[in-house]
């Protein structure tokens, strides 16, 4: 039921955004062309951003669960080392707050209290998780539990490995900050070049008051609008893939790059369109 409502909400936002763009292209752009680019951006943001936020929210929740799972493993290990049995250690850990992981920890504790085997409970927990590190860790814990090994030693080793992986991710994110800034600067330089081409070079070659180019040389005429649309397409493609690459460098995930793509495309399209309208008003 919750998934169905989410899909309906996403469909409503997409429909509203598309409707705004259609009205802008057919009516508003003819009356007030200067604000037409901003309305296009608004429609696109309404259609894209809410569904993206829902999708990205799930991604961020999975990242938070991975971080809190390390804390949970550490707490469980300390409780077992203090002399508690596994069920008592689970009950003790279930009283703590692990943010997004808390409901899952309490569910594990409840199932063990009801008499469900610990191995089966962990398997059910792993199926609900969308995190590969957690699934690998749970698989290791289950194998240790099967062979009768000392589970506290296994939990310590898993916790330490997860901490090291998390440190490596944080160090990588910190080391690529300058590269992220460079990626944004390169994109804005690209926008600046397109603005110069559209504002000065192409009109100089074809004439500001001439609707087509190449007529003086007998070549097939090419409307200036074709170049404008091509530049907009360049901005969308460049912004989309530059954003994905930035997210991959910063967080190691293409999904996280979608937010950079949205920002780059929105800013790039707005800047290019506003300069185009200023060009028309000045000349």
Give structural attributes.
2 strands; mainly alpha; 2 domains; two-stranded antiparallel sheet; elongated; single chain; 10 helices; 283 residues
Descriptive notes:
- It contains ten helices and two strands.
- The chain is elongated, with a radius of gyration of 28 Å.
- Residues 207-219 have low confidence and may be disordered.
- The protein is an all-alpha fold and 283 residues long.
- The chain has a two-stranded antiparallel sheet with strand order 1-2.
- The N and C termini lie far apart (57 Å).
- α2 packs antiparallel against α10, α8 runs antiparallel to α9 (224-251) and α8 packs parallel to α10.
- The protein has two domains: 63-173; 176-283, no CATH class.
- Helices cover 82% and strands 1% of the residues.
Question: What topology emerges from the helices and strands here?
Answer:
Layout: H1 2-31, H2 36-81, H3 86-94, H4 102-113, H5 118-128, H6 132-147, H7 151-175, H8 177-206, E1 212-213, E2 222-223, H9 224-251, H10 257-282
Antiparallel strand pairs: 1-2
Helix pairs in contact: 1-2, 2-3, 2-7, 2-10, 3-4, 4-5, 5-6, 6-7, 8-9, 8-10, 9-10
How would you concisely characterize the structure shown here?
This protein is mostly helical and 283 residues long. It has two domains: 63-173; 176-283, no CATH class.
Low-confidence stretches: 207-219
Helix content: over 70%
Distance between the termini: 57 Å
Overall number of domains: 2
**Helix segment tally:** 10
Shape: elongated
Largest beta sheet: what is the strand line-up? Answer: 1-2
Number of strands: 2
Percent of sequence in beta strands: under 5%
Rounded average pLDDT: 82
Largest sheet: 2 strands, antiparallel
- The helix-and-strand class reads mainly alpha
Whole-angstrom Rg:
28 Å
SSE topology string: HHHHHHHHEEHH
